[in-house]
Amino acid sequence: MYTVEANIEGYMKDIGATILFSPNPGRTIKEVRKSMEVSQDDLAQLMSLRRETISRIETGSINPTAAFIKRFSKYASIIKVFRELNARKDAGKKSIGALLNSTFMRAHFSLSKGELDSLIAIGHTSYSKTKKKVLRRI
After folding, report:
1. Is residue 59 pLDDT above 70, yes or no?
2. Helices 113-137 and 40-47: crossing angle, nearest 10°?
3. Is pTM, for the whole model, over 0.70?
4. CA-CA distances (angstroms) from residue 27 to 87, 126, 137?
5. Do 130 and 37 form a contact (C-beta atoms < 8 A)?
6. Cα–Cα distance measured from residue 125 to residue 131, given in angstroms and rounded to the nearest whole number
7. Is the pLDDT of residue 104 over 90?
């Protein structure tokens, strides 16, 4: 059975470990961000940083802190799951609302309402961008 929380936690571990053990963590962060169709501006806003700071991390000018990697992994995982939920919805599976308990999500992952709302919006936009690219190729 698909559970949102278990998938997020699994992705958090995978993304965090991939970044930590990467010879170039900035490049890995950039690859994860771009694979989700998230702009540097959107990521910077989520992380409460300047876009230039995200760019410097991605180019290796500065190293990401452990706190940055932890937050990035959490946000990237949540966005990834929201992308999956949008795909499930398009495939005629359960609706997003049936799989998502926002009160639990906020408490379990220590998110503010604004953070969760932003992550949901970015996940939806990200999925839509990818879907359009796929449909253009067909």
Report:
1. yes
2. 160
3. yes
4. 27, 20, 27
5. yes
6. 10
7. no
